[in-house]
Amino acid sequence: NWRKGGGSARMIEISKRERFYQQEYCGCIYSLRDSNRHRVASGRERIQIGVQYYTPDEE
Question: Residue 1 above 90 pLDDT?
């Protein structure tokens, strides 16, 4: 299990350092549709594809 021993924290650390794209849904059109429906119903904006990236904590 990659999450044991700090694997999740390490993944986030690397993602921030390398400024990886941070996708807010699983990647399929159905997930995007359902995520946007939920967000709109909750008063949040729709997902904007390609604009959210992991950024270092100091920014």
Answer: no
Q: Where are the alpha helices (DSSP H) in the chain?
A: 7-18, 29-41
CB 10 within 8 Å of CB 18: no
Question: pTM, whole model, 2 decimals?
Answer: 0.60
Q: Around Cβ 39, how many Cβ atoms within 10 Å?
A: 15
CA distance 4 to 1: 6
Question: How many Å is the maximal CA-CA distance in the chain?
Answer: 37
The separation between the first and the last C-alpha atoms of the chain, rounded to the nearest angstrom, is 31
Position 59 scores a pLDDT of: 55
pLDDT at 38: 96
Give the SS3 label for residue 34: helix
